[in-house]
Amino acid sequence: MTKKFIILAALCMISYSKAQDKAEQALRIFAEKYPQEKVHLLFNKSSYVAGENLWFKSFVFDGYAISNISTSLYIEFYDSHKIQIAKKLISLFKGEGHGSIALPEKLKEGIYYIRAYTAWMANFNEDFQLIQPIEVYNPNSPERLTMNTVSDWTASAYPESGTFISDINTKFAVRLRSETFTPSDWHGYLIDMEKPDVKITSFKGFDQNVGSFSFTPQSGKKYGLVIQDNMGKKQSIDLPNVSDSGINLQVISSMDAVKYTLKSKNLSQENNYYTVLGTINNRLVHKAQFKKLSDQPYSNPY
Description:
Elements: H1 3-10, E1 12-15, H2 17-33, E2 37-43, E3 47-49, E4 53-62, E5 65-66, E6 72-78, E7 84-91, E8 96-102, E9 110-117, E10 130-137, E11 153-159, E12 170-178, E13 186-192, E14 195-204, E15 210-215, E16 223-229, E17 234-238, E18 246-253, E19 257-265, E20 274-280, E21 283-290, E22 298-301
Parallel strand pairs: 3-10
Antiparallel strand pairs: 1-20, 2-4, 4-5, 4-8, 6-7, 6-9, 9-10, 11-12, 12-15, 13-14, 13-16, 16-17, 18-19, 19-22, 20-21
């Protein structure tokens, strides 16, 4: 993930002075007191046979830099029933470490899981910890791994800036998720729920996970998406209700700057000002205040 994307994703808009002050204070406290470590593991193989050694090299980051917070890393090995088979404590030097896990010869063939985290990461939600599936084969096992050729995926759609306002062109991100794998080839189209046979706009997925489209909604309309993969599986999802008022933040990234536009509808401009905050790695790097909103683009150089 690049710094550009972090700036894009972290730009937020807050109205009213007390809320702005609290948001800035919360960002500073979070960056100072609650840095977030991330673990990355490199394995010597993509799959293993029972009885082999699973070798790995570990890297612990604080944002984009090697972390100096932790000096040790926990590595745990689990089966598919969440039963712990092995546990290691790895020393870290300047955020890096290495080690191995001896896979028992009597392991059943199947999918196993590596869990990696530091003591500091254990203070936060487990979603920040690394969970990595590992294929283990065993010719003497009565159980066999079989390739799942059917992708059981689900789709979700997210409007840019979290608002969906009538008469304002809005970009949506569409994301596929699956516990197995997502399709490499998929597409979708937008419909008015009152006219489901008419395609308003169509789009193709950028990759196995994400696609996007833009359109301008009308007041009082209800919209939906139809997503289909190359195997013929189809899913329909509802878009959020169209609002008749609010603020929409639109962001465009170029080679030398992040440009953004604030658009509003049916909002009183009296006694209000607005603040845009930009963060990288939970650190405040950009702040701009506006008394009046307009369609002109604003720029934040890298």
